[in-house]
Amino acid sequence: MAKTGANQGGVSESLLARIGFRVRLVWCVLAVYFDALRMEPAKFLVATKWWILRKKVRARGQFAPLLSRSSRAYPLWLLKRHRGRSRDLGIDPLAAAVIALVDTSGPHDALQLQQTIKSLHDQGVAYHTVQGAFRSILPALIADLASRDSAWIMPIMAGDSLASGAMAAYRQAIVQTQASIIYADDDCISPSGKRHDPHFKPDWNAPLFECCDYVTGACLLRADLPFMDTAADRRDWASCLVRQALDTTPVKPVHVPAVLHHRLQRPQPMLPLAKLTSLECFPLVSVIIPTRNRVDLLRTCLDGLARTAYPNLEVIVVDNDSDDVATLDYLARLDSGRYRVLRHHGPFNYSAINNRAVSQASGELICLLNNDIEIIASDWLAIMVTAALKPDVGAVGARLLYPDGRIQHAGVVIGMGNAAGHAHRFVNPAEVGYFSRHNLPQFTTAVTAACLVVRRDRFYAAGMLDEENFPVAFNDVDLCLRLNEMGWQSFYEPRATLIHHESVSRGRDADPIGAARFARELAALQQRWHTAEFVDSYHHPDLSRASETFVIRL
């Protein structure tokens, strides 16, 4: 009978624990929604309206950034996803020994150092403390490594700590890879122990890493004595070890998409230089501009091209049945020595218009340019060409701003809204945003064709734009994905910044015919690229797929 009573008591305790968790979860959800309502009441009510009207995709897209602004959004995420401690994956720690090098040169106190050491000890990680350079402890470290068949090094700052279950996750990654670097997501921890500001990182993105070291301080490095010796005399030995590991292995670093480190502070991104001077020659670029009426837009676009500091240009204007007298007169008066005007009749088909122009172009590179683009700096094209000439780059996209200065395009993320969305839309370039990603050159999965530069031979190799399935929408996304598959990755270049008066000359697809056409193109995109299930490697599973700003997925 006593045994039965104990079981019943255990069940009761378990039930109470579940009820307690549910109460905390509901309270936290309500608190996050209340914070959103309090901070942005008008936007909150609009999002609620769309939810009531069953426009759930639109509602989620508007709710996501509102909810993420709450200081309790990350605690809610933690509560929902970390109900228990990570379980031991049963991997022998001796098969993947890890030795931590604890950098004590940064700001910390004795208690924070002890917390770091305790987090290492609790997960079976041996350690050496390092003050400044680590030459003095190198003999002991070498002896430690020599006693182990397979060893990894973990550079970690004093005051930082490992998340529960971090080593289990790392050891699982170790047995599955040949890479020399494994890195994880991290968050910050306050002196009171409160976790905040999670960094949900992309998979390996070499150009982004050059401006934002999101690896050092949250990674493991395969032990290699030659490059360790080179870094041993440097005070920045941790980042030096990471960069030398990158230089000595062809295998890309592996990303563990989980928060495995709690940090006191992170290095700040380094904004790249505004100007690039790496071009030694200027290959011919064919700039292709489809247009219909709206001479004011076309004039602004061509005036900007005339001010562009690029000496080897071919400009092709493709007129799609303009019937405005002023526009026709302007086209007739264009200097035939500087501009070619092609006539393209029939319904607007962006893919067909550009494919035809490319077939008549002479340039080594193609620049697809909307007529509603306003050029504000003379070096934009040289910057984009510099990127497009790199051997591993396919389509290059610019940073496009709305006329009010907010971002309209900073790369394209596949899977947003189960289709594709413009990254960092409506963010002010002066804001920090999501770890300054909108201001940093980087690989992306796709870019917009509103301003796109690509080598002509690669455009042909990828099959050009799909005129049948994507006459208006998603043709650029489809092209970029095909270029990516061939080994030419899309690239976002924020140092080329232009203004985009988005689709103002064509109008929006509010009419039934346009809406039906868009629905067909969306269905084609989802069928071909499975965007409803697509996980964009340059985004993150724990960032919302509903929001074009990078916010936590709740």
TrEMBL record:
Cross-referenced SUPFAM superfamilies: Nucleotide-diphospho-sugar transferases (SSF53448)
Lineage top rank: taxon: Bacteria
Organism whose genome encodes this protein: Novosphingobium capsulatum
Gene3D superfamilies with a match to the protein in the record: Spore Coat Polysaccharide Biosynthesis Protein SpsA, Chain A
Domain Glycosyltransferase 2-like residues, every copy: 286-405
Protein name, entry field: GT2 family glycosyltransferase
